[in-house]
C-alpha cells in the first residue's frame, strides 16, 4: 500500500474540514471495497477519513412506521436487529446473506450504497423499498440516488448519514450468488409498498441496479409468481462475463423474481 494519512474525526464538521484540506481523500466506513483496492495499488488516496465513530452514524431506530438505519450500521447489525427483523424481514435476510461473517461484521450499509457496486445487494433493497438516503446536506429519494455503475447522486465530499425505510406490506429478496464472492450474479428484490409494487434488479445490469417496470405492472394486477410467466427481460443492457452471459442473466431475473414473490412476507 502507498503512504496514507489516517483520520478519525469526532463530528461531521471535522470530517468535512479534513476532506476539504486533503489532496485526494477517501471516506472509510466498512472498507470492504476500498482497502482491498488500495492493497492492489488500484487506489492511492492521500487521506482516509474514518467516519464510523461519529455520533449518530450508527444504530437503528424505529420512527413510527419507518426505520432510520445509521450509515455506519454493519450488515450484521441490520440482520440481527429484532424490531427491523420483525417489521421488514426481507431486508434483514438480505443483510444476513451478504458475504461471510467477517464481511458482515465490518461492512456498512452506507459504504455499500455510496460505492454502488453493480453486484451489491443493498441497492436493490433501497430501490425496491422506496427508501430515502439521508446525507449531511439533504435527503435523496432512491429513484434519484442510483445513477449508473459505481455512480450516485452524491456530490464531492457529501456524506451519507442514514437511510430511512418504511415498512412495506410485504417483500422478499432472492439472489443467485457467485459461489466464491457471494456477490449477486443476479438478485431481485420485490416489495409491495405504499407507492405500489416495486421490483429492483441487481447484479445483472450494465449500469447497475434498475427497476423492472414490466414486472411491477404485472404484479400490481396479480401479486403471484405466475403473473411473471409471460414477461421476458431483453438481454440488451445486461452484463455478460465469465460467470454468465447476458441471456443467462435475463433468465435468472425471471427465476429470482418468481422466487421473491413466492417468499414475500
CATH fold-level name of the largest domain: Uridine Diphospho-n-acetylenolpyruvylglucosamine Reductase, domain 3
Helical content stands at: 25-40%
Q: Spans with pLDDT under 50 lasting ≥5 residues? A: none
Largest sheet: 5 strands, antiparallel
Q: Give me the number of helical elements.
A: 11
Q: What number is the mean pLDDT?
A: 96
Q: State the total count of DSSP E strands.
A: 14
Tell me the number of structural domains.
Answer: 2
Physical arrangement of strands within the biggest beta sheet: 4-5-10-6-7
Q: How do the SSEs run, as a string of H and E?
A: EHEHEEEHHHHHHEEHEEEEEEEHH
Termini, distance in Å? 46 Å
What is the 3D form? globular
CATH architecture verdict of the largest domain? 2-Layer Sandwich
CATH class of the largest domain: Alpha Beta
The radius of gyration is 18 Å
What structural class do you assign from the helix and strand content?
alpha+beta
- State which percent range the strand residues make up: 15-25%
Amino acid at each position: 500500500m502507498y503512504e496514507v494519512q489516517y483520520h478519525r474525526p469526532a463530528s461531521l464538521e471535522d470530517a468535512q474540514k479534513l476532506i476539504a484540506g486533503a489532496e485526494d481523500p477517501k471516506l472509510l466506513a466498512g472498507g470492504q471495497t476500498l482497502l482491498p483496492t488500495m492493497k492492489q495499488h488500484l487506489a492511492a488516496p492521500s487521506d482516509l477519513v474514518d467516519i464510523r465513530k461519529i455520533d449518530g452514524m450508527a444504530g437503528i431506530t424505529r420512527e413510527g412506521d419507518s426505520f432510520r438505519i445509521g450509515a455506519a450500521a454493519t450488515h450484521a447489525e441490520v440482520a440481527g436487529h429484532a424490531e427491523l427483523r420483525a417489521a421488514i424481514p426481507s431486508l434483514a435476510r438480505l443483510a444476513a446473506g451478504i458475504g461471510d461473517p467477517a464481511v458482515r461484521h465490518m461492512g456498512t450499509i452506507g459504504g455499500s450504497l455510496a460505492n454502488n457496486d453493480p453486484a451489491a445487494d443493498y441497492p436493490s433493497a433501497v430501490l425496491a423499498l422506496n427508501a430515502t438516503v439521508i446525507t449531511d446536506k439533504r435527503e435523496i429519494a432512491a429513484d434519484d440516488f442510483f445513477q449508473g455503475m459505481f455512480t450516485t447522486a452524491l456530490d464531492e465530499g457529501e456524506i451519507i448519514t442514514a437511510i430511512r425505510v418504511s415498512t412495506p406490506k410485504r417483500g422478499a429478496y432472492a439472489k443467485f450468488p457467485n459461489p466464491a464472492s457471494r456477490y449477486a450474479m443476479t438478485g431481485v428484490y420485490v416489495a409491495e409498498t405504499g407507492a405500489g409494487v416495486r421490483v429492483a434488479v441487481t447484479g445483472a445490469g450494465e449500469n447497475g441496479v434498475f427497476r423492472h417496470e414490466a414486472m411491477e405492472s404485472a404484479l400490481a394486477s396479480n401479486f403471484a409468481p405466475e403473473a411473471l410467466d409471460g414477461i421476458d427481460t431483453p438481454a440488451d443492457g445486461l452484463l455478460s462475463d465469465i460467470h454468465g452471459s447476458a441471456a443467462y442473466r435475463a433468465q435468472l431475473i425471471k427465476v429470482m423474481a418468481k422466487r421473491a414473490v413466492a417468499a414475500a412476507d
